[in-house]
Write a structure and sequence with these properties.
The chain has an 8-stranded mixed sheet with strand order 2-1-3-8-4-7-5-6, sandwiched between helices. It is of the alpha/beta class. It has 2 domains: about 25-155 and about 275-310, Periplasmic binding protein-like II (D-Maltodextrin-Binding Protein, domain 2), CATH 3.40.190.10; about 155-275 and about 315-340, D-Maltodextrin-Binding Protein, domain 2 (3-Layer(aba) Sandwich), CATH 3.40.190.10. It has helices at about 10-15, 20-25, 45-55, 65-75, 90-100, 115-125, 135-140, 200-210, 215-220, 230-240, 255, 290-300, 305-310, 325-340; strands at about 55-60, 80-85, 110-115, 150-165, 190, 225, 245, 265-280. Helix content is about 40%, strand content about 15%. Helix 1 packs across helix 8 (about 200-210) and helix 3 packs across helix 12. Helix 4 (about 65-75) links the parallel strand 1 and strand 2 (about 80-85).
Length: about 350
């Protein structure tokens, strides 16, 4: 009997059938495994214990500059406690932690991923240490935190279409994902890789679900510049190496706009929506230091929260354009109401 060979498309489509909740951002409503531990505050005693440990190791998929700024804010708030940032793409973070734990190496204390499915896997494998920061208990709605206290949403981001306004006129710019397939954009598009970036993998899930795999088959004919990280396409636009990005992070825009060629615009009709999640990892060596990082990241008014609020607003009506997921539409509507205020 001839064995059937699964293609990447088969795997992706099969994953989509079982991952609708994930793509909609509802992974936090998982069945309870155990009651969440009581919320913990950052106390002077905890800070002193963290100082004795001296260092916390943070694996993250956030842009390196942003992650280092958050680390600097952490060290300013908790003098005497160092933070080592280990930044790479979310899929590489997942691979690295898996390899380390398989070798009984427990180097990471806190992990952040832009692929929410990683948290489900880590929780299933009992790799996460249940911990509820006081601010999560106080400010987070149930749908944005794990019922068992294993993880919580760090932020929600977009993966938009964008273009360099020095290279593309506004009236000629692509207004939807379908527009990217126009022959005029051949050799002018940059795109990040779902095998490296959790942002792009999640966006790919949503795109295939909403407009089909055929879109990517046709996009591949456009002589795409393929980069790794979701943070790379905005940088290529800012440098003028490509005029349009098919996906990538929107939060790099404020920094990249300051480059000489870096004036560009985010389309208000083409983008995907996803969660980023944060959690302490079971077995990390700095157990007390590890408690302070989620507090800094998840607390309203923290450096991370300040970074989130500085992101540009995107206004569009619900259901507009190619991105039709419920989560994306809710985000579009919320952004529109925020701008109207």
């Amino acid at each position: 009997m001839k064995k059937s060979k699964l293609s990447r498309r088969d795997i992706l489509e099969a994953s989509l059938k079982g991952s609708t909740a994930l793509a909609l951002g509802t992974v936090f409503a998982s069945a309870a495994r155990a009651e969440a531990p009581p919320a913990e505050a950052i106390t002077p005693q905890l800070i002193e214990a963290a100082k004795k440990e001296g260092k916390v190791v943070w694996y993250t998929a956030i842009d390196l500059t942003v992650a280092e700024n958050i680390a600097a804010a952490f060290k300013a708030k908790f003098p005497g406690v160092d933070v080592r940032v280990e930044r790479t793409g979310a899929e590489r973070v997942f691979q690295r932690i898996g390899q380390e734990y398989a070798s009984n190496v427990h180097a990471v204390d806190v992990a952040n991923s832009s692929d929410a499915s990683h948290l489900l896997t880590w929780k299933k494998q009992d790799m996460l240490l249940p911990y509820v920061p006081e601010d999560v208990a106080k400010y987070y709605k149930p749908e944005h935190r794990d019922a068992d206290g294993s993880y919580a949403g760090f932020r929600a981001t977009l993966s938009p279409i964008a273009y360099n306004t020095k290279l593309v006129k506004a009236e000629e710019a692509p207004a939807s994902f379908k527009d990217l397939l126009d022959p005029r954009w051949k050799g002018k598009i940059v795109k990040a890789h779902p095998g490296y970036s959790g942002t792009i993998l999640t966006a790919t899930f949503e795109m295939v679900r909403d407009i089909g795999w055929e879109f990517y088959e046709n996009l591949a004919k456009q002589n795409i510049m393929q980069v790794q990280s979701a943070t790379d396409p905005p940088k290529k636009l800012a440098l003028g190496e490509r005029s349009v990005m098919a996906d990538g992070t929107e939060y790099n825009v404020p920094a990249e706009r300051r480059r000489p060629a870096g004036r560009y615009h985010l389309s208000d009709r083409g983008h995907a929506f996803h969660y980023r999640t944060e959690r302490r990892v079971q077995g990390g060596t700095q157990s007390q230091c590890g408690k302070t990082v989620p507090e800094l990241l998840l607390h309203p008014g923290s450096a991370a929260d300040h970074h989130r609020r500085r992101r540009p607003a995107l206004a569009a009506s619900a259901g507009q354009g190619a991105c039709r997921s419920q989560a994306a539409c809710r985000d579009q509507a919320d952004e529109g109401r925020r701008r109207e205020r």
